[in-house]
Amino acid sequence: MRPRDLSDHSPYVPGRGVEEVARERGIDPDDLIKLSSNENPHGPSPAAVEAIRDHADRVNQYPKSSHTDLTARIAEKWGIGDEQVWVSPGADGSIDYLSRAALEPGDEVLVPSPGFAYYAMSSRYHHGEVTEYELSTADGFAQDAETVLSAYGGERIVYVTSPHNPSGSTMPLDEVEAVADATAPETLVVVDEAYGEFSDVDSAIPLADERDDVAVLRTFSKAYGLAGLRIGYSVVPEAWGEAYARVNTPFAANELACRAALAALDDDDHVEQSIESARWAREYIADELDAPTVDSAGNFVLAAVGDGERVAEAAQERGVIIRDCTSFGLPEHVRISTGTREETREAVDLLNETLADLGLGVRA
Fold first, then answer.
1. Which of 36, 62, 250, 316 has the fewest beta carbons under 10 Å from its own?
2. Are 278 and 345 in the same domain?
């Protein structure tokens, strides 16, 4: 007995962790700077930590009440109906929910390349097919309706990522609307705003509220610092609301995750600090790194270093963990997450030393 043929499925490649690198290289974990996974260097909201402690003795109960409370709070934040909020275990959980709700076997999904691997993974899990539209290094991975529509062929779901991972480019709201206007009525345009808090571009959530062909993904993993709890949500058209009960995994968003997210939503100081810090760090990296970078609206910067794998490996020896972008189809690039000011300054100095030693970079 064997599983079904999974040869078309590629495993998700995460950024390397501190413990993994420390164990492999015999380095004290405290001596490593991890800038590989776009995590919040300031940790979770203190209010979220307090909420976790306060509700830890309730984990014997299913999270029905907390799930309902979080749904209502998110709906209030965005001025939409409760039924339009699909709380999920991370934004990737919402991707699965939308795949279940939208895809029939053989339906196609249009995804950006390079881009977040899980769009295609979820489609294939649900017996869908995948086509791609190309974002180009030549124009800084610029996103517009023409780029998407040039590859569009009637797909059931079209994914847009704004800010885009791994480049940090954005798609203005009018361009998102142009995609939705030009695609077929049965096509759902899904705008992934996992890094939306760090960007100045308007959210597409009002479009999801006004139309029946746009949905938006959001997460608590980045600006809110709750990556380890796996909590996110999607905002869907009102007409899609009743589908949630038919496609979601029972109680998938756990009690502590829901309670932490509720508290984090009201901790404006933590979110503002996280956003300000990321904006400072990405500007610092762009200005001080001895390699060309792409303008970014996320909490990371994509840099062209010539040999991403080689640079990432050598940087680890100096104590900096960054993301080799070979898995994104960008072997000449690395992605550097924004750290605290101290971490960012130290990491850039060490990366510049690495580039110089390897004979790479603009001033090598």
1. 250
2. yes
